[in-house]
Write a structure and sequence with these properties.
By secondary structure, this protein is an alpha+beta fold. It has helices at 2-16, 269-280, 301-317, 319-328, 349-359, 380-395, 399-402; strands at residues 26-27, 45-50, 60-65, 75-76, 90-95, 102-109, 112-116, 122-124, 134-147, 150-162, 167-168, 171-176, 187-191, 203-204, 206-216, 219-230, 234-235, 237-241, 252-253, 259-262, 283-287, 290-295, 330-334, 344-348, 406-407. The strands form five sheets. Strands 2, 3, 4, 5, 6, 7, 8, 9 and 10 form a nine-stranded mixed beta sheet that branches. Strands 12, 15, 16, 20, 23, 24 and 25 form a seven-stranded mixed beta sheet that branches. A four-stranded antiparallel beta sheet has the order 14-13-18-19, with no helix packed on it. It is elongated and about 85 Å long.
Length: 408
């Protein structure tokens, strides 16, 4: 009798999680994850943008940065997705490990030579130097004087910061701390590269199926949606809003795989990174004649071990807020895969940890008891009630999918 009851409890609880007794957690299908873009080494590069509005001028040719030789020709910033078009329509990457006090700037209009008004065409930058690893902007070009066969122009020059390539063809994330998604869509407006967001407020973000437990102000919430969008092309900056409904972020630097917060502290970033990493490792798995396209059980023992180790580290060293967050955050998955593939619910990372340890017992060196292992005979009535409740909830048609965030 004891053996049968334990088997019943294990099966009932696994069904509640949306898995078979040995199937693991099966998540909703996602498009293939874009390849990670490796950061380039710009320690011996000086990048100079030229913001030059040539409308109203004659035919402009031979724009050169760094010197007046043919090797100093600039390129259009639109010629390569990595360039920030917001900083200028022309750009030059100068390969050099040396620091320069000034930088040459030359061009021709209708065959006539133009150069910066001082120092033979070489521009100084106030309180700084042209240092490798950094990018600069020259703008505000305008006529000053004629000087024999040449013309002189004025300009302004700025040090922007360390060289940074645009985000390219990658997915970025937004923590919807104030649940904009419940009344309006969450939108991302991006610019500065080859990707087009159209007019403001930009593109509608989609639900990543990732859920965060976190404090918004002084109240802790679970089920906070993490939205996502995948660039088709490149962009330098991004701005999020509730579809132009009166709430928006400021202009933010867009990075590959960037995670952005609104109403929630960025101290939760490690938890979100764990969620994203876990989701990226999902894959196909078969159980009881059913094929799951994005299952937790696809994880290898090594991947499961890495997840459990990271989870335990966050729980033990992240402080009470992070410990609560990592246990209560989760992924949206099927709630009854044995009978339906249309009903979904959130499964916590704590529950996923327990399922992975059940699949690979050896990864928990201290024999930490997982959720299923902690069920006793005294829990029978609770499990029965939960199991019946799960069946009832499935009948209401998508309760889990559309529910709002809940306050703990």
């Amino acid at each position: 009798m004891r053996v049968k009851r334990k088997l019943f409890l294990t099966t009932a609880f696994a069904a509640l999680l949306g898995v078979g007794a040995f199937a693991g957690v099966a998540l909703t299908k996602e498009a293939a994850k874009p390849a990670t873009v490796e950061a380039a080494d710009y320690s011996s590069t000086i990048r100079v943008y030229l913001d030059f509005n040539t409308s109203g001028w004659g035919t402009i040719t031979d724009i050169r940065i760094g010197g007046n030789g043919s090797g100093n020709n600039v390129v259009l910033s639109s010629s390569n997705a990595k360039y920030n078009q917001s900083l200028g329509n022309y750009v030059k990457d100068i390969s050099s490990g040396s620091t320069y006090d000034k930088m040459g700037c030359f061009f021709k209009e209708n065959g006539t030579q133009w150069e910066y008004q001082y120092d033979g065409g070489y521009i100084w930058i106030d309180d700084s130097k042209f240092q490798p690893g950094y990018e600069f902007q020259i703008k505000g070009i305008g006529w000053v004087a004629d000087s024999g066969s040449k013309k002189l122009f004025k300009a302004e020059v700025y040090r922007i910061g360390e060289i940074r390539d645009n985000a390219q063809n990658s997915t970025f994330y937004f923590v919807d701390g104030y649940s904009w998604h419940t009344s309006r869509s969450v939108t991302a407006y991006f610019w500065g590269g080859t990707a087009s967001a159209g007019s403001y407020p930009g593109k509608t973000m989609s639900d990543s199926s990732l859920r965060l437990k976190a404090f918004v102000g002084e109240t802790e919430f679970s089920g906070l949606n993490i939205m996502q969008y995948t660039l088709s092309g490149s962009a330098a900056y991004v701005k999020f809003s509730n579809n132009n409904g009166g709430q928006e972020t400021g202009d933010l630097i867009l990075s590959d795989g960037g995670i952005y917060f609104y109403g929630v502290s960025d101290t939760y970033k490690p938890v979100i990174e764990l969620l994203i990493s876990l989701k990226s490792k999902l894959g196909s798995y078969s159980y009881a004649g059913k094929n799951f396209t994005s299952s937790i059980c696809h994880l290898s023992q090594s991947e499961a071990s890495t997840f459990v180790s990271t989870y335990d580290s966050l729980e033990s060293t992240g402080g009470s807020g992070i410990a609560s967050s990592v246990a209560g955050s989760g992924l949206v998955t099927y709630d009854t895969p044995e009978t339906s593939s249309s009903h979904t619910a959130e499964v916590s990372l704590q529950e996923i940890r327990a399922q992975l340890i059940k699949k690979y017992p050896s990864i928990s060196s201290f024999g930490r008891i997982g959720i299923i292992g902690s069920i006793t005979e005294s829990s029978v009535s609770i499990i029965v009630i939960i199991s019946i409740s799960a069946t009832c909830l499935a009948a209401v048609g998508g309760y889990f999918l559309f529910r709002k965030k809940k306050e703990n």
